[in-house]
Amino acid sequence: MSNRECDKSSISKVLSFILELQKCADDTNLDATGCDNPCLGPNISNGLIFNTRPITLYSCCTGELWTMPFTLNGTTGDSTVFKISKLDCNCATFEILAPNPDTTNSLLPYIGTNNFFTIDLDCVLAIRCLNDTYTN
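Given the sequence above, the corresponding structure tokens read:
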């Protein structure tokens, strides 16, 4: 696929933006929300800085949420929440995020599973950005 074709993919552009934000996470805080918020934030009261903009993916074939299996600490499950970790034109690699078993902090709803999958973005109808968070 040529760069010109990549430039036409709005999903690819948004994911590229999110990936760059995650790479450059700092303590900047704006009140904007959604996929185009120009920074990750706010700071978490314990000093951690949000480093993840979790997203959900919707299938272009069915419009349903993508669900992926994961294994974490010997336990298996399914999740619909992901973190972009790599983007190569129209192919994206995501880490599967699991619900945080420690439910005492509502600002940390997910944890990284170190389980990944790669998808052709032509198979994605839409994405939805969730509230910024910190993941390990």
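The two ends are 33 Å apart (CA to CA). Try to locate this feature in the token string yourself.
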